[in-house]
């Protein structure tokens, strides 16, 4: 079993920044590619970013590339999502996912955190 807990969401003005964290437990964290997904009201959950087990490879959805940075600290069993120059369209509940994949495809037996709300005002 894997337990994932997200934190760091909140309210921010357009152009501002937030840093999300996801703390993992229950498995060997360093073995897994991990990902971030988000879901806005009335929309399907979408892939945002993923990072390989060592942190050497990353991938992003085109709409956040250049603004968001995914990283990880395996010593702390934690992944991060640094979000800069936030836009109102980034408003969503953000979820941590693992084991994940670099291409954004969701494993049927993967685990999810509870989600953290990010709201960006115009």
Overall description:
The protein has 122 residues and is mainly β. It is 0% helix and 48% strand. Strands 2, 4, 5, 6, 9, 10 and 11 form a seven-stranded mixed sheet that branches. A four-stranded antiparallel sheet has the order 1-3-8-7, with no helix packed on it. Strand 7 (68-73) and strand 8 form a beta hairpin. The chain starts with a strand and ends with a strand.
Report the total helices.
0
C-alpha Rg (nearest Å): 13 Å
Oligomer: single chain
Low-confidence stretches: none
Average pLDDT value?
A: 95
How do the strands and helices of this protein lay out in sequence?
Elements lengths: L2 E5 L2 E4 L4 E8 L8 E6 L6 E6 L6 E3 L7 E6 L4 E6 L8 E7 L12 E2 L3 E6 L1
Parallel strand pairs: 2-11
Antiparallel strand pairs: 1-3, 3-8, 4-5, 4-9, 5-6, 7-8, 9-10, 9-11
Keywords:
single chain, about 120 residues, mainly beta, 7-stranded mixed sheet, 4-stranded antiparallel sheet, globular
């Amino acid at each position: 079993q894997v337990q994932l807990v997200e934190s760091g969401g909140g309210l921010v003005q357009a152009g501002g920044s937030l840093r999300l964290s996801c703390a993992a437990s229950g498995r060997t964290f360093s073995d897994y590619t991990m990902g971030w997904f988000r879901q806005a009201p009335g929309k399907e959950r979408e892939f945002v970013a993923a990072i390989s087990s060592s942190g050497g490879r990353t991938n992003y959805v085109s709409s956040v590339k250049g603004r968001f940075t995914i990283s990880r600290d395996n010593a702390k069993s934690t992944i991060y999502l640094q979000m800069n120059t936030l836009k109102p369209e980034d408003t969503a509940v953000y979820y941590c996912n693992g084991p994940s994949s670099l291409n954004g495809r969701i494993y049927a037996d993967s685990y999810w955190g509870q989600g953290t709300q990010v709201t960006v005002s115009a």
